[in-house]
């Protein structure tokens, strides 16, 4: 949470003899929502900390010529003392993730009382701004404007360093840090740093084990809301990310990006030792064990070791018998997602692995077995120049 001084300048009517006014008012930046203050103008008054009546809960400040009232909306009124003490508390607790202020409606916790008050609007204020394209509604008109860009595709905020565009100015600001290399949010538990505070908070849950986002359909819980949204699609069957080259659709955009590389042949991940290229990073990580032999993930049931946590998780199902990947076309279930993908091709008829002779197969290993026939068909060629 950032405190900043907002200098507000206003020229009043010179005809009535009132000179230029400069009033400095402290604002809290909370979830991209500012506490709006009704400024009551008085000539040549500068509000300072020592001028503020700390006993007041109404925002009455003592100016040189008497009291000045700062009127705030009732649901977010905060005294100068409260903000001052809270700022000290936030400064002390931001890195320790102490969140003593909890929402009674949803259980979400915050490091500051003003943050909590801002959040409570989600529950208490009427969402009167309704989207005409979907069933979403918003408390504030500017939230609706930003949301509507998802439907229109409008992205008015363009990066000056590259061709990237954004629907929200805050997203552009975060993106610009990828060019500057700025990562001001540091994890106190490891060496990782982040461009956004929200990314740091999500990361810290890896260390704390906190999983506040729970599925209402099953008992699964996640450390990030985005993970829960993706998981919910396993219940609804929604696959919003459609490939433009074929009929395949995916629950995550990252899965679609990986899939597109099958069409383009793009392999952006290169081994720094043998220069072999891969279409996704997980395959590169697995490949690197060929060179370094590192397999840090050990099975607690047998002597097998694995190079990635995902490989270990898949292997453990051979001990537990768990088969979480179920076909939505029939009753078959599998312990690995890859097995389910192969099985689904029996329903769709998809055969992505093609030989030059025209034959196609559902699996790469079947194609490789087939290609051995062509190798045997080719006679040995004797290089007579060596004789």
TrEMBL record:
Main location: nucleus
Subcellular location: Nucleus
Domain C2H2-type: 101-128, 129-156, 157-184, 185-212, 213-240, 241-268, 269-296, 297-324, 325-352, 353-379
Gene Ontology MF terms in the entry: DNA binding; zinc ion binding
Gene Ontology cellular component terms for the protein in this record: nucleus
Keywords tagged on the record: DNA-binding, Metal-binding, Nucleus, Repeat, Transcription, Transcription regulation, Zinc, Zinc-finger
InterPro entries: Zinc_finger, Znf_C2H2_sf, Znf_C2H2_type
Pfam families: zf-C2H2 (PF00096)
Protein family according to the UniProt entry: Belongs to the krueppel C2H2-type zinc-finger protein family.
Record-given protein name: C2H2-type domain-containing protein
Species, as recorded: Meganyctiphanes norvegica (Northern krill)
